[in-house]
Structure formats: structure tokens, C-alpha cells
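Need residues for this backbone.
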């Protein structure tokens, strides 16, 4: 029979690692599932270290003003976790660097990280039972769910056909590929992510169309202005993608756009289509076990607490937050979940 863990943390974004740092320092010796390195996780953007690992500069996480962190990174990260990171510039911190730093801090205090997915859970009795992708069962007195959210696709058959051949939901991961270099590309969406991705793509592509279904961006004012003032970005208002065009040899060659304002169809010649149309919480493995919201996020049942519908199970970060969705709020949630779990365990004599 497997040993019963005091706390298992599921997820390896800012919420998961922060929960781990607090739980480890509270001597709970946490076990953290950081996700498996699998094709499925690569396809849907749920590899270890979460969404931040798919971004470039992080300008709004407190404590990292512009500057050169190179020497610090060399001393703070073990060599085998440093080699894959791109050379450090003078930007402060990048998403992958920030996540590696959080991971190193959690491991330093005794967190045991397992590079597997939790595939199903049984929260019907205590201790809780968790099935993992290594075909093992794990048990825990308390669980912190911090599995985050993943990028949405449009669900068009033509989009599916050209995934990885011009269709991507991560400009930062794929934007520098040769197929997009000095070519026109399109970003779909009107939020901060769309603007951020479009801006990033201007470094590689000849031109970036930002295709939005309305006549006003949802993005924050400062981000929207950045897009509007960038000569390489052309905003295409009131349009949705009807079909991704292309062929087997070239991948994507264009997109056919339907008007949401009664205009004729429009075809844009582009070699890439990048989706930035929001996210879906990673809660499939929780269905039937935890109460979820209409949008599939884990429901928190107490104001200002991380309690879920099952006593002893706590939730933090984007998996339970479709409103703030920031690295710093996720990290704060992770801290709260670890404190809630610690106090709950103490109250139950564990
Ligand atoms: P978001 O704010 O939900 O924006 C999604 C965009 O996609 C919206 O403009 C939406 O259109 C559009 N959309 C949704 N479904 C669509 C569909 N089926 N077809 C066409 N368009 C569709 O998501 P986000 O941009 O990923 O941002 C999420 C959160 O992260 C926000 O809180 C944002 O502030 C934050 N964020 C911050 C930064 C930063 O500060 N640097 C960067 C990235 C993200 P409508 O506008 O018409 O609904």
C-alpha cells in the first residue's frame, strides 16, 4: 500500500510551485505532479511549467525590473535546467526563467516533483486517491489543484488539418519557425494575449494581421495602443475565420474571413494563423469529483478562501480563476491554498 502523503499538489505553474514552497517550508513534504512530457500535452499546451513557459518577457511580476539576470540564473538554476533556456537579454525575467526559478525554490525546500499527469481522482472518501500517468495510485490527506488553463482553438476542420503546419496557439513557441520568417501571418482575437502575440510576431513576420470579431479591442488600453501604433500590425475589424486555406506542400496559405458586419467574405494571404481566443481550464480529470462552474473552472465555496466543494481539497490559480488570470494572482492563490491546507491538516490531526 502506498504511503499516504500529507499534501499532493497537482500543477506546475506559479500557483503550484508557490503552494509547494509554502507547504515544504511548513514541513508538509509535498509531492507535486508537474505534468507529463507527452505529445498530447505539447499539442494542447499543458506541458510542465504551464502557460508562462510559453511566453517571453514577463514585465509585470514584481521583483524583476529590466536588467541582466544572467549571473543569478547561473547560480540559482542547476545546469541541466538551464541549458534549454534561450540566452538571457536585459529584459528582467522571461516566463521559462521565472518558472524554473520557482521550481528550483520549491525543490530546494524539499518538494518532490513527479513529471507525470494526474489522470483521475477519487475524492469520495479520505485519504483521497489519485491515479497518475505512470499507472500508479497515490494517496493524500489533502490535495491542492493548480492545473491552470489552456489555449482555445476555433474547432474548424481546416484548422485541425493545419495544426503545426501554420496553425498555432502559441506565437512565442512557434513564431520564430522558418515557415513564418518574413511572411504575412494572422493573429485571431482581441484581448491582451492577441496583442502580445501580434507584437511578438512582428519580430519575425513581414506583416501581422490582427483579426477581431468586433470593432473594439478587449485588450487593456496600453496594449491596444501598442498594437495600433505598430506599423507592422494591421487590425482587421469585425471578422471571424470561416476556413483555413492551404495545401499539403505549403501548409497554411491563407484564411477566409466572414464579416460580422454584413460585408463580403475576405481572404487574407498568410502563412500562419495564431489563435489567441481565450482559455479552457484543465479540469477534465476532476469531473464528477469536484463542483465546477458553468465554464468548467473549479468552484471555490468560501469567499477569500481556496476551499472547494470537497473538504480537504483546495484550488489555486487559473484553474479556479477566470477573472484575474495573472502570474502574481496565481502565485498568491498558491500561497493561500498551502496555508489553508496546512491549517486544515492541523485541525484534522494530520
Ligand atoms: P480574453 O481577454 O478572454 O480575450 C479573448 C479574445 O478572443 C477576445 O477578444 C474575444 O473576443 C476573442 N474570442 C473569443 N472566442 C472567439 C472566437 N470563437 N472567435 C473569435 N474571437 C474569439 O483572453 P486573453 O487575451 O487570453 O487574456 C486573458 C487574461 O490574461 C486577461 O485577463 C488578460 O488581461 C491577461 N493577459 C495579460 C497580459 C499582459 O498584461 N501582458 C498578456 C496576456 C494576457 P471578444 O472581445 O469579442 O469577446
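Answer:
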Amino acid at each position: 500500500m502506498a504511503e499516504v502523503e500529507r499534501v499532493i499538489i497537482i500543477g506546475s505553474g506559479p500557483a503550484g510551485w508557490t503552494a509547494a514552497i509554502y507547504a515544504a517550508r511548513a514541513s508538509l513534504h509535498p509531492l507535486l505532479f508537474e505534468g507529463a512530457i507527452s505529445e498530447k500535452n505539447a499539442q494542447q499546451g499543458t506541458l510542465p511549467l504551464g502557460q508562462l513557459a510559453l511566453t517571453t518577457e514577463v514585465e509585470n511580476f514584481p521583483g524583476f525590473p529590466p536588467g541582466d539576470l544572467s549571473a543569478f540564473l547561473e547560480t540559482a538554476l542547476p545546469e541541466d535546467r538551464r541549458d534549454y533556456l534561450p540566452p538571457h537579454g536585459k529584459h528582467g525575467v522571461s516566463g521559462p526563467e521565472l518558472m524554473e526559478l520557482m521550481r528550483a525554490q520549491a525543490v530546494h525546500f524539499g518538494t518532490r516533483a513527479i513529471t507525470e499527469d494526474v489522470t483521475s481522482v477519487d475524492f469520495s472518501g479520505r485519504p483521497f486517491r489519485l491515479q497518475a500517468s505512470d499507472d500508479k495510485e497515490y494517496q493524500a490527506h489533502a490535495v491542492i489543484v493548480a492545473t491552470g488553463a489552456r489555449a482555445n482553438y476555433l474547432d474548424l476542420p481546416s484548422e485541425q488539418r493545419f495544426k503545426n503546419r501554420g496553425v498555432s496557439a502559441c506565437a512565442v513557441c512557434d513564431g520564430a519557425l522558418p515557415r513564418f520568417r518574413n511572411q504575412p501571418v494572422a493573429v485571431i482575437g482581441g484581448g491582451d494575449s492577441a496583442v502580445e502575440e501580434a507584437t511578438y510576431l512582428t519580430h519575425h513576420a513581414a506583416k501581422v494581421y490582427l483579426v477581431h470579431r468586433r470593432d473594439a479591442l478587449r485588450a487593456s488600453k496600453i496594449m491596444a495602443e501598442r498594437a495600433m501604433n505598430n506599423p507592422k500590425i494591421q487590425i482587421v475589424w469585425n471578422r471571424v475565420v470561416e476556413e483555413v486555406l492551404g495545401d499539403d506542400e505549403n501548409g497554411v496559405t491563407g484564411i477566409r474571413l466572414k464579416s460580422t458586419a454584413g460585408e463580403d467574405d475576405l481572404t487574407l494571404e498568410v502563412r500562419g494563423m495564431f489563435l489567441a481566443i481565450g482559455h479552457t481550464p484543465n479540469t477534465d480529470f476532476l469531473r464528477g469529483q469536484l463542483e465546477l462552474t458553468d465554464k468548467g473552472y473549479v468552484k471555490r465555496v468560501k469567499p477569500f478562501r481556496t476551499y472547494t466543494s470537497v473538504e480537504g481539497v483546495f484550488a489555486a490559480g487559473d484553474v479556479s480563476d477566470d477573472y484575474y488570470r495573472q502570474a502574481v494572482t496565481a502565485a498568491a492563490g498558491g500561497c493561500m491554498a498551502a496555508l489553508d491546507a496546512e491549517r486544515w491538516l492541523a485541525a484534522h490531526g494530520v
